Every structure is written in structure tokens, then in C-alpha cells.
UniProtKB/TrEMBL annotation:
Protein name in UniProt: Uncharacterized protein
Keywords: Membrane, Transmembrane, Transmembrane helix
Transmembrane segments: 6-23, 35-55, 61-82
Superkingdom of origin: Bacteria
Organism: Leptospira weilii str. UI 13098
Transmembrane helix is among the record's keywords: yes
């Protein structure tokens, strides 16, 4: 039994599931993939807390969930943040393009 790992996995599980519940708006692509990523990590960390308590009956499920969370959960969270960042980047880029291609009117007065 490794109590420090039990506590850290429990805290990770609690925080991940809490964040997933906070962003569970499925209408947004970035929130939907973030939700799935945080749920995968939360479930995996919860099973890790059980595993490190010394309860080995769930080991096959724990091993699968760790692999799933690391290969699918973390990239899903990254995809969600990337999608949000691209939207902001597109807005800023459009603004910069408008500024760069808008020419001030020349004053054609002659003296």
C-alpha cells in the first residue's frame, strides 16, 4: 500500500471529475472533447487510488484505463484547448488582416 500515491490519485480523480462536470456542455466541440478527456483521466485516477490501496481485483480494468487515459484522454484535452485557441487566433488574425489592408483615405486637396 502506497498512501502518498493513493492520496494523489484520489485528488487527481476528484479534480478531473469536478472539471468534467463543470464543462459538460456537449453543444461545443471543445467542451465535449475536454469533458471526455477529463472523465477518462478521472476514472483512471480513481481506479489508481483503489489499485494503490492494495485492492488488486480491478487490476485489468485499471491497466486498460491507464492506457486509455494516457493515449486518448490527454490528447482529447489538448484538442479541446487547441480548438478554443484556434477560434481566438482566427478572430485576432481577421482583425489584423482588416487593419493591414485598410488604407486611410488620402487627402487630395491642392493649394
Amino acid at each position: 500500500m502506497q498512501l502518498s500515491t493513493v492520496f494523489s490519485d484520489f485528488i487527481l480523480s476528484f479534480v478531473s471529475i469536478f472539471v468534467a462536470i463543470q464543462i459538460k456542455n456537449i453543444t461545443s466541440y471543445s467542451k465535449a472533447v475536454g469533458f471526455l478527456g477529463f472523465i477518462a483521466i478521472g476514472i483512471s485516477a480513481g481506479l489508481g487510488a483503489i489499485h494503490f490501496l492494495g485492492i488488486e481485483i480491478l487490476d485489468p480494468i485499471y491497466r486498460f484505463s491507464v492506457g486509455f487515459a494516457s493515449f486518448v484522454g490527454v490528447p482529447l484535452i489538448g484538442t479541446g484547448f487547441f480548438h478554443i485557441g484556434i477560434k481566438k487566433l482566427e478572430k485576432n488574425f481577421e482583425f489584423v488582416l482588416k487593419l493591414s489592408f485598410s488604407h486611410p483615405e488620402k487627402n487630395n486637396r491642392t493649394c
